[in-house]
# Entry
Amino acid sequence: MDESLLSRLRSLGVQLGNTPFSNNSTPKLERLISIEKVIEGKNYPTIFGDIFISEKQYPPNYNHGIVNFSSSVDLSSLIAWSRIPFESITSIDEFVFLDTETSGLAGGTGTFIFLVGLGYWKNGQYFLNQIFLREPDEEPAFLTALEEFLTPFKILVTYNGKSFDAPLLNNRYILNGFRSPVRNLHHIDLLSLTRRIWRNRLDDRSLGNLEHEILNLGRAEEEIPGWMVPQIYFEYLQTQNATPLRGVFYHNEIDILSLSALFLHLANLLRNPLGSPNPQSLDLIAIARLYEELGDYTAAVQLYEASLEIGLPTHFFIQTLYRFADLHRRTGKIEAALALWMKASEFNEVDACIEIAKFYEHQIKAYKQAIEWTDLALTYLDQSPLPRYLKNQRRLELEHRQQRLHQKHNRSTNQSKP
Amino acid sequence: MKKILDFWQNDPSLSPNISTIHVTNANPGHFVPLPEKLDKALVDALLQENIKALYRHQWEAIQNITQSKHTIITTGTASGKSLCYLLPILDKCLKDNTATSLLLFPTKALTQDQLNTFLRLSPSTFHSSIAIYDGDTPSSQRAKIRQTARILLSNPDMLHTAILPHHPNWERFFRGLTFVVLDEVHLYRGVFGSHIANLIRRLKRVGQFYSASPIFILTSATVANAKEHAENLIEEPFQQISDSQSPRGTKYFLLYNPPIVHEELGVRRSALSEAVRMSGDLIVKGIQTLLFTHTRKNVEIGMKLLQSQNPDKAHQIFAYRSGYLPTERRKTEEALKTGKAKAVVATNALELGIDIGGMEAVIISGYPGSIAATHQQAGRAGRQKQDSLAVLVASSNPLDQYILKHPEYLFENPPEMALINPNNPLILYQHIRCAVFELPFRQNDTFGKLPWEDIHPYLQVLTLNREVFATADRFIWRANQYPSQNVSLRSTSGDSFLLQVEEDDRLITIGELDQASVDWMAHPNAIYLHQGQTFIVQELDFEKKLVRLSSFNGDYYTQPLMDQTIRTISEEKNQSVPGGAIHFGEIEVTRQLKGFRKISWLTKEILATEELELPPRTMRTVGYWIELDAVSVQKLSEYNLWSGKPNNYGPNWEKQRKLARQRDQYTCQLCGIPEKGTPHHVHHKIPFRQFPSYEQANRLENLITLCPVCHHKAESVVRIRTGLSGLRFLLSQIAPLFVLCDPGDLGSHSDPQSPISQGNPIVMLYDNSPAGIGLSETLFEKHEPILNSALEVVQNCPCGEGCPSCVGVGGENGSAGKVEAIAILKILNGQPLRL
# Structure
C-alpha cells in the first residue's frame, strides 16, 4: 500500500471516510460460510463456469396475501392495456416475473447485478429461480445462465423495470461483450399501471406498500430494507460469510411473489372491475379512464355510472361528472351530457354553466336560456376562490360570450317580429 | 474607419496617447478548389451556401484529417476554422453510414451556433442525424438522440456526467466514433485543462472498449505551445495548421496609453474612462462598438458611464457578463446581431466564437491578461472583408505598460504557454474514480500515458476507502453513487453558490458565484454589483451554498483584506542564481479573510475598515520562490543607508524625540547600549508615511530609541520589506506574460525574514489551486527572462517612487519601494549597485 499517496491526498483535502483502514481484509477461516450452506441450491454449468442457482416450487393452491396462485385468470384486458399484440400470447406460462438485487441504487455502468429472481407458472404451478453471483468475476457465467433461463419466455414483467432493471441488464450484457436477451422480450412494467389505477387512492405506490394495502400481506422478520442490500453483499464479499444474504434472498423472493400476485390481481381487476365484493369507486374511475383510452366506451360508461352511484369525494365526484359528460358528448349523447352538467351546476360550477349555455346556444338556439346560464356562470365566478388575475381573464371571456348571445337574441327576436 | 482615425489623430487631447498604430493590410486570401472526392450531396450543400473554394489552410487541414492525422488548427478569428472539421466529418458520415463524430464546445451558446452551421452545410436528409446533447436537451428527446445521432454536439461537462457513465446506451455511437473535435482548446488550461486531459483519457478508454480510436481535431487561439498543448491534452502526436489564408480587410490596431495625471505618483487617467470616451466617439459616428473590460464590476461601471455620457443612446447600450442568466445574454446577443445594440460593454464571456455578426470596432479597456485573449477580443472586429478597428487602452498595470513598450509581443510570436498538469494527484484521483465506474481496471491497464504502476496506488487508496472493490483480477466500482456527479471540471473542488435577492416576498436567483470567489466577492456586508444594480450581502450561507443580497443605495464599494502564512512541505528543485537562489517545491498556504475596506466611489478614499470572522482556508500547492542570500542583504543595507533622503517629521518632532529618549532612559531598546556623548536615534515603529498626520505618527507609543547600528538594521529590514513587497507586486503582474493564466491563478507572498529560508528574504509566486497545475514550475524554468522583464519595467517607469505600473503604490509600509525593488532586481540580474 502506498502510504504516501494516501497521506498526500488526505492533506490535499480529499475526504477519505471515517472507516478505519485495515490491511487484513483476508477473512478469518473459521468464519467462512459459503452460500451453499445458507441457501438451498445447486451449481448450474455454463461455458464460462458454474453459477449458483436456487430453485423453489410452490404448492398447488398457494396463496400470496389475498391472491390465489392457481385460480384461472383472464389476461385479455391487462394485455390490451399493455399494447402487446394479443395473438402472440397463448397462456400465462409465457410470462416471466423478474426482479434484481444490485451493487448500488444509482444505476449507470458502475452498478452491477448480483442476484436475479425469476418467477413463472408452468402447468398451473408456480416456480421461482434465483441466480446468484458468488464473486463479481463470475459475471459472464451469471449472464449466460440468465439468458438460458429467459429463453422459454415471451413477456417480461417487472416493477419499475423499464427505468431500472432492464437498462441495467442491458448494460451488463454490453459491458461483458454479449447481446442483451432482454431486448428480445416484450416488457410490461406494472409500475405505470399501478400509478394510474391507484393515483387517487394511494400516495405511496411502491411495491412494498401495495403489498400491504392491496394484497394484505406483511413480511417476516428476515426481511431487510432494499437500501441495505448493496452493503450486505459487499460485506459478504469481504468476509465470505453468506449468512446475512438469507435476508436478501428472502427480500427478492417476496418481491417476485408480490409482483406475480399483483399481476393476477390487476388482470382480474381490469377484466372485471365490478366483480369484487367491495369495489372502490376511486379505482373504478381510474379504470374507466383507462377503458376510455382503449376505446371501450361501453365499459367506461358502466364504470362511471357505478362509481357515481357508490359515491365519491366531492372533488372526484365533480371531476367524474365532467369526464363522463365529455364522454357522452363525444359519443353524440348530448342530452345525457346535459343531465350531468346540470348535476355539476348544483355545485356552483362555472364550467358546467358554460357547457349548458353552449348547449342552449348551439343545439337548440334558445338564446334566452343561454343568457341566463351565462349570468349564473358570472355569479359563480365571483364566488369562486380563483386568483384575481384568472378571475378577470375568465370574466372577460364570459362577458364577451354574453354580448354575443344578446346580439343573437336580439337578431332572432327582430327576425321573428315581422 | 479612416475618418475616425483622422478624427482622433487631429485631437490634441488624444493623439499623443496613441503609442502604436499597427496596420494589418488587407489580404485577398489564397483559394484552392474544393477537394474532388467530396460527397456529391455535400458539394451541393456547399454550392447552395456559395462556398465554391477553400482557403489554402482549410485545404491543408482537411488533407491532414482525411489522412487520419490528429490536427490542431490555430489560424485566427474569422479564418473559417469550423469548416476544417465540418467538411471531413460530413463527408465521412455521408459516405459511411456507421461513422459518428463527437464535438465538444466549451459553452452552450457556442454549441447552438455550430449546430446551425452544420445544418446549413448538410443535405436536409441528414439533418435528423445531427443533434445537440446538453443540459437543455429535453429528456423526451434523449433516448432518440442516443439511438440515432451521427454527429453529436455537446460539452465536456455532459460527456463527463451524462455520456461516459452510461456508455452502453451509446454503444452504436461509440462503435462508429471516427472524429472527436475540441474547440477553443486554449481555454482548456490550468485546472480546467487538467480535468479535460483526464476526461479525454476516459473517453479514449471507453472508445477502446468499443474498438474505436478516433481522430482528434482541435482548434485554438494563438499560444506559444499550441502543438505541445494539444499533445499534452490528448496524448497523441499532432500536426499544426497555423498559416491563415483567408481574405480580410485592413485592420487597424491602436495601442493607447491614457495620459499621466499625477507625475509624482505616475497615476494615469483610468483606462475605463478613456475607453468609454472613445466608445462614445464611435457611437456618435454610428459605428457599432464592443467594449471589453476585465471584471464584472467594471462592466457595470462602464455601462453606467457610457449611458450617462450618451443619454440619447442609453437604451441601445447593453451589458454582458457571466453571472447574468442565459436568457438575458441571448437577448443581448440578438440585439448585437440585429444592430439594435449600438454598444455592448462585456467581459470575456463574449470573447468566444459566439456569432454576433461583424463588429466594426472593438475597444479593450485594459490588457485582458493574455495575448491570446487580446487577439480573440480584437478579432471580434472585422468579420468579412470590411476595414475594422481595435483599440487596446492600457491600464496602469505593469503588464499593460510592458506590452505597450513591446508591441512586438502582441503582433509577433507570443511568449505565452498554455499549461496543464493532468497528473495533479487531486484531479487524477477524481478521474480514476470516474474511470473505474465506467469500466473496471485490470492488472497492467494504463490510463492515458500513465502506466499501471502509477495508477495502481490510486486504486488501492480507493479500495481502502471502500469506493472500489478488488476481485481476483479486477478493480470494480463499489460505492453507491455516481462519482462524476460530485466532480466539477471547472475547479479542483467545490460547487457554486446561488445569488438570491428578496423581491415582493419572493427569493429571486439573479446569478451564481463559484466557491473560490465567494469569500472575496460576497463576504457578509460586501457590496456586489449586478446589471448596474448595487447590492449588499446580507448573508453568506456555506451550508446551503446561498448568498442573500438586498439592494443598496450607499456611495461606497468594498475591498477584502486577506491574511496569509506559508510553510514549505518539500523542496523539489533549487538552483543558485546571482544574489541568492531560486526554489521550487510543495507548500501549504493558509489564508483568512480578516476584514474589508469601504472605499468611496467618488474620492476613492477609505471610509472604514471592518473586521470579519471567517474560517481560515488551507491549501496545499506548489510554489516558486526567490531567496536573497546574506551577502545581498548586506549589499542592500549598505546601499540603502546612503540612498534615503531625510524626512520632514513635522514641527513637534524635536520635542517628541526628546521625550522618547527620556522614556527609554537614553538606552538602545534592542541591544541595551546607553548613549555616549551623541544622542541615540528615535525610530518610528510604524513608518511615518502611513499616518495621515504627523501628530499621529509621532505619538510616543509609535517611537522607540535605538542606537545607530540597531537603527540601521531596523531601517534596512523595513526597506528590504518594502522592496520585496514591491517586487512581489511587480512579479505577480509580469508572470502571466509567460504562462497563459489569469492573474488570480497565481498567488504571491513576500517575507524579509522568512522561516522557510532560515531567515533570508524571499519573494514567492505559487499556483493558486490545490496541488498546482504547473505554473510555478514553468516560472522557475523561466526565472531569468522574467527577472529581466521586471527590471526593465521598473527602470523605464516614469513615476517617482512607485506606481501601479511598476511596484504598486504604498506597499505594506506606506512606501512603494521602487528604489529598493530596483536594487534587489539588479542584484538578482547580476548587475552592480552604484552608490
Residues 708-734 of chain B form the longest helix (27 residues). Chain B has a mean pLDDT of 86. The radius of gyration of chain B is 29 Å.
